[in-house]
Write a structure and sequence with these properties.
Layout: E1 8-12, H1 17-28, E2 32-37, H2 44-52, E3 56-61, H3 67-80, E4 84-89, H4 104-132, E5 135-140, H5 152-172, E6 177-184, H6 190-198, H7 203-212, H8 222-233, E7 244-247
Parallel strand pairs: 1-2, 1-4, 2-3, 4-5, 5-6, 6-7
Bound molecules: nicotinamide-adenine-dinucleotide.
Nicotinamide-adenine-dinucleotide is lined by residues 12-13, 15-19, 37-38, 62-65, 90-93, 113, 117, 140, 142, 184, 186-187, 189-192.
Length: 253
């Protein structure tokens, strides 16, 4: 690649929240960004934010847990924007419940979007990265990987993301590809707002209560996570691979 050529980044689940902030951040760093989410129309807000700031972005509708949709979306990205050599596996859902109340569907949905989605996307993008001799993969884990009541599905998926990441790092390193994981703590997004609603608390009270348990005494913003992801996707981060960075306002026990 010449130094003037623009690298293409796929950010899954980037219609809103952490994914949207990451798409905006990577575009500001000069990447052409594929804004991927379930509903293509819902991606437009992120695309507009990027293009109105002078960046390059396009919307792509895709369910990351569906193999055929992932293959088709990655092929479209390669055709319309260029070969994707940066991949952020961020798409996510919650289906929280205590073990005895958790349905098969809630287990399968969460494992399907997070783990299977990251697998399908990484597999579809790897040949583009190998051909380029360069790749940056970042997988979203979570502080819940360490265990969290009511989240056996999500905790298993997010712990799985860490093993998946380390294995990608070992397999793909010789091709100039790094794989790292970012594990956020409490970040204020629609996802945590939905959790507040589920437990019957107002979001402001929920955030304030969470902040008292966090050493820096505030909850995180999507941009806090985007900043860590941007580091791992950087041109100069090629000797950092297989790592898990907690972005949680303090150490976790
Ligand atoms: N918010 C937090 O506190 C927090 C903490 C730790 C980890 N995370 C992780 O960070 C990531 C982003 O979380 P967020 O808080 O921004 O969530 P969010 O719910 O605001 O956004 C998630 C996005 O993923 C998309 N998505 C869901 N299923 C999809 C699928 N099958 N295919 C494509 N897109 C899909 C949604 O449409 C949505 O736009 C998730 O992986 C989440 O598990 C979040």
């Amino acid at each position: 690649m010449s130094t003037t050529e623009q690298r293409v980044a796929i950010v899954t689940g980037s219609a809103r929240g952490i994914g949207a902030a990451t798409a905006v951040r990577l575009a500001a760093e000069g990447r052409a960004v594929a804004v991927v989410d379930l509903d293509e129309a819902a991606c437009q807000e992120t695309v507009d934010k990027i293009t109105s700031a002078g960046g390059t972005a396009r919307a792509f509708g895709c369910d990351v847990s569906d193999s055929a949709q992932v293959e088709a979306a990655v092929a479209r990205v390669a055709e319309e924007l260029g070969a994707p050599t940066v991949l952020v596996n961020n798409a996510g859902v919650l289906r929280d419940n205590l073990l005895f109340k958790m349905s098969d569907a809630d287990w399968d949905t969460v494992l399907g979007v997070h783990l299977r989605g990251a697998f399908l996307m990484s597999r579809a993008c790897q040949s583009h990265m190998v051909d380029a001799g360069f790749g940056r993969i970042v997988n979203l884990s979570s502080s819940s990987a360490l265990g969290n009541r009511g989240q056996v599905n999500y905790a298993a998926a997010k712990a799985g993301m860490q093993g998946f990441t380390k294995t990608l790092a070992k397999e793909l390193g010789k091709f100039g590809i790094t794989a790292n994981s970012v594990a956020p703590g409490f970040i204020a997004t629609d996802m945590t707002a939905a959790t507040a609603e589920r437990v019957g608390m107002g979001f402001d009270d929920f955030k304030a209560a969470a902040a008292t348990q966090i050493p820096v005494q505030r909850v995180g913003a999507p941009e806090d996570v985007a900043h860590a992801i941007a580091f791992f996707t950087g041109e100069q981060a090629g000797f950092v691979s297989g790592q898990v960075m907690y972005v949680a306002g303090g150490p976790l026990n």
